[in-house]
C-alpha cells in the first residue's frame, strides 16, 4: 500500500467497524490540518483497492463524512474536503506538538463541526438511514418528472403525501383524520407560524412548557404573543399551574409524548385536565409530537389529539427526526372545522416544501419503507441509549445521575454536588461537544441543573466511555 496515507492505518482486530475507523481517521486528519479545505481525497474505489476492503465499506465512511459536512462530491472532479471549512481554520497555522491531551485544545475543538458534534441534539442516526432505498426512489421520481410537476406545488401540500400521512397517523398514533386536515409545511417553525396567523392575535397569551424548547418561545415572541411559562414535573405539564397563572390564555404549546427537554410523558389525568381547560377557555392546544415514535418502555403512546372530542387540538409532526433534518418537511393536522381557515392562510404564508421531496417521502411511506425504518430505529435507539447511559455512568457516576425515561432521543444527566450545568456545558462546547444546559431552558425560579446530551450517534461502549472521560476532564 505505497500510496496509503499514514493516518489511514486500520486495526482489523479492533471492535470498531472498519468503515467507522476510516471515517474517524479522515475526520481527525481534517480537524488536525493534515487534509486542508479543497484537498482531493481518493475515490472510494481507489481507496478500497488500496486498503484491500470492499468498496461499500469505504462508501459508508464517505457517506457519513459527506452527511456531516466534512467532504463534498464534485462529480467527475472527485471528492474534496469541504471548502467552507477554511472559514473556520485557526488564525495561526503553526501548531505546537502535544504530549498529552488537553481539554481546551483537543482535536474536536480545533475544528468546529456545527453539523454533527458529539451529543448533537435533534440529529438522528444518519449512519443507519437507508440511503440506497432513498436514492432509488429519488432517481425514479426524477425520471418520472413531467412539466406539470415543475410548477408550484399545492399550497397545502401534495395529495399523495397528505393521504400517506393521514393513513400513517390513523394506524400508529390513533389520530382519526382525513387528508384534507393534513397541511404540509417546511418545518416546525413554519408550522407554528401557520397556527399563529390562522388562530391567534398579537397580545394573546400562550402557555409554554418550562423548561421547554427555546425556539417555540422565540417564535411566539416574534409573533407578538404573551408567553405564560407553565411548570413541568414528572407527570408533564402542571395544568393547575397554568390555570392559576394564565387562565385566559388562548393556546398551549405542549410536547405530551416526550416532553422537551425532560422526556417525561404527560399523564392521562393531566391530558384530560388540559383538554377540559381548552374547552372551557375556548383555547387551542398545539401538540408537538417531534419524536413520539421513539418510546422504549412500551408501545408509543396514543397522541393527545386522539382524546380530543371538541376540536381544540392541532397535531404537529415532523420528518426531521424520523428521516433526516435536510428533508425540511413537517405537517400539521387541524380540526375539521378549521380546514377552510387554514386553506386560506396557507395560500399566503405556508411553504409546503419542494414537490420532488414530497414525492420521494410519499413513495417512501406508501411502499412500506417508512414503517420499517421507524421499527429499526426504535430498536437501534434503545440499544444506543443503553450503551450511552451505561458508558457515561461508568465514568461520571460520582458526579452525574442519568434520569430514567421511557423514550426520546437524548439523555438528561442531573448534576450532583456543587457542579453547575451552564459552566460545564460551555466548557464542553469549547471542547467540541454539543452539550446543552437544562437551566438555560427555564425562566421560572429554582431551575434544575442538568446536561442534555443526545445519544443517537453513540454506537459503541468504547465511544461512550471516551466521551465520558472527556467530560470528566472538564469538571
Automatic annotation (TrEMBL):
InterPro entries: Aminotransferase_I/II_large (IPR004839), HTH_trans_reg/aminotransferase (IPR051446), PyrdxlP-dep_Trfase (IPR015424), PyrdxlP-dep_Trfase_major (IPR015421), Tscrpt_reg_HTH_GntR (IPR000524), WH-like_DNA-bd_sf (IPR036388), WH_DNA-bd_sf (IPR036390). SMART domains: HTH_GNTR. Residues 16-84 form the HTH gntR-type domain. Keywords: Aminotransferase, DNA-binding, Pyridoxal phosphate, Transcription, Transcription regulation, Transferase. One of its GO terms (molecular function) is DNA-binding transcription factor activity. Residues 89-114 are annotated as: Disordered. CDD domains: AAT_like, WHTH_GntR. PROSITE patterns: HTH_GNTR. SUPFAM superfamilies: PLP-dependent transferases, Winged helix' DNA-binding domain. The keyword Transferase applies. In the C-terminal section; belongs to the class-I pyridoxal-phosphate-dependent aminotransferase family. This is Aminotransferase class I/II-fold pyridoxal phosphate-dependent enzyme.
Amino acid at each position: 500500500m505505497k500510496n496509503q496515507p499514514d493516518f489511514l492505518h486500520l486495526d482489523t482486530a479492533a471492535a470498531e467497524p472498519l468503515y467507522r475507523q476510516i471515517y474517524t481517521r479522515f475526520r481527525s486528519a481534517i480537524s488536525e490540518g493534515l487534509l486542508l479545505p479543497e484537498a482531493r481525497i481518493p475515490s472510494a474505489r481507489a481507496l478500497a483497492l488500496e486498503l484491500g476492503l470492499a468498496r461499500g465499506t469505504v462508501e459508508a465512511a464517505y457517506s457519513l463524512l459527506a452527511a456531516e459536512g466534512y467532504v463534498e462530491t464534485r462529480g467527475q472532479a472527485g471528492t474534496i474536503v469541504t471548502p467552507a471549512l477554511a472559514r473556520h481554520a485557526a488564525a495561526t497555522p503553526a501548531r505546537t506538538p502535544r504530549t498529552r491531551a488537553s481539554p481546551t485544545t483537543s482535536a474536536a475543538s480545533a475544528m468546529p463541526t456545527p453539523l454533527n458534534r458529539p451529543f448533537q441534539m435533534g440529529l438522528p442516526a444518519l449512519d443507519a438511514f437507508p440511503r440506497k432505498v432513498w436514492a432509488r426512489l429519488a432517481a425514479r421520481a426524477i425520471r418520472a418528472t413531467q412539466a406539470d410537476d415543475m410548477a408550484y406545488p399545492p399550497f397545502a401540500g401534495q395529495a399523495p403525501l397528505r393521504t400517506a400521512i393521514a393513513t400513517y397517523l390513523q394506524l400508529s398514533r390513533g389520530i382519526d383524520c382525513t387528508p384534507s386536515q393534513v397541511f404540509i409545511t417546511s418545518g416546525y417553525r413554519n408550522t407554528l407560524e401557520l397556527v399563529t396567523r390562522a388562530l391567534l392575535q398579537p397580545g394573546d397569551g400562550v402557555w409554554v412548557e418550562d423548561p421547554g424548547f427555546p425556539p417555540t418561545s422565540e417564535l411566539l415572541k416574534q409573533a407578538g404573543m404573551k408567553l405564560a411559562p407553565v411548570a413541568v414535573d414528572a407527570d408533564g405539564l402542571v395544568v393547575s399551574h397554568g390555570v392559576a397563572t394564565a387562565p385566559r390564555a388562548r393556546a398551549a404549546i405542549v410536547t405530551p409524548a416526550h416532553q422537551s427537554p425532560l422526556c417525561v410523558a404527560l399523564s392521562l389525568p393531566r391530558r384530560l385536565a388540559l383538554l377540559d381547560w381548552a374547552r372551557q377557555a375556548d383555547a387551542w392546544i398545539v401538540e408537538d409530537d417531534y419524536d413520539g415514535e421513539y418510546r422504549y418502555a412500551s408501545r408509543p403512546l396514543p397522541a393527545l389529539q386522539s382524546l380530543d372530542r371538541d376540536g381544540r387540538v392541532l397535531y404537529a409532526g415532523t420528518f426531521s427526526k424520523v428521516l433526516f433534518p435536510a428533508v425540511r418537511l413537517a405537517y400539521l393536522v387541524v380540526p375539521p372545522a378549521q380546514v377552510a381557515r387554514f386553506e386560506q392562510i396557507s395560500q399566503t404564508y405556508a411553504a409546503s416544501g419542494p414537490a420532488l421531496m414530497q414525492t420521494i417521502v410519499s413513495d417512501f411511506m406508501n411502499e412500506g419503507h417508512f414503517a420499517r425504518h421507524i421499527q429499526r430505529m426504535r430498536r437501534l435507539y434503545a440499544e444506543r441509549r443503553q450503551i450511552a447511559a451505561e458508558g457515561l455512568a461508568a465514568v461520571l457516576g460520582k458526579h452525574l445521575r442519568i434520569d430514567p425515561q421511557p423514550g426520546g432521543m437524548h439523555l438528561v444527566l442531573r448534576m450532583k454536588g456543587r457542579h453547575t450545568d451552564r459552566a460545564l456545558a460551555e466548557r464542553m462546547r469549547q471542547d467540541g461537544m454539543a452539550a446543552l444546559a437544562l437551566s438555560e431552558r427555564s425562566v421560572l425560579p429554582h431551575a434544575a441543573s442538568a446536561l442534555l446530551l443526545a445519544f443517537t450517534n453513540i454506537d459503541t461502549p468504547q465511544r461512550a466511555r471516551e466521551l465520558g472521560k472527556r467530560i470528566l476532564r472538564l469538571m
